[in-house]
Amino acid sequence: MEFEALALTRREAEIVRLVTTGASNVAIALSLEISPGTVKKHLDNIYAKLGVSGRGALTALVLDIV
């Protein structure tokens, strides 16, 4: 998927990919070797950039694009 078109950073794109697989913030944090708080902050930024309000809406948006 071309996340650059969504104006996401590489790290944000990684997080979106993991969210769409159903991974929790803790699982994402472990996978990317960052803290769960950092994952939450990235998700807040992603939601704001894409105009969505949560994981479900984010996943639906991504699935509509692919």
Question: What attributes characterize this protein structure?
Answer:
about 70 residues; mainly alpha; Arc Repressor Mutant, subunit A; 4 helices; about 65% helix; about 0% strand
Kindly describe this structure.
The chain contains four helices and no strands. It is an all-alpha fold. The chain has one domain: Arc Repressor Mutant, subunit A, CATH 1.10.10.10. The longest helix is centred in the middle third of the chain and has 15 residues, at 36-50. The relative contact order is 0.18. The model has no long low-confidence stretch (mean pLDDT 92).
Tell me briefly what this model is:
Helix content is about 65%, strand content about 0%.
Structural class: mainly alpha
Q: How can the largest sheet be summarized?
A: none
What's the β-strand tally?
0
Per CATH, which architecture?
Answer: Orthogonal Bundle
Radius of gyration: 11 Å
- Helical fraction equals 55-70%
| Outline | globular
Oligomer: single chain
Structural domain tally = 1
Strand and helix map with partners:
Blueprint: H1 10-19, H2 25-32, H3 36-50, H4 55-65
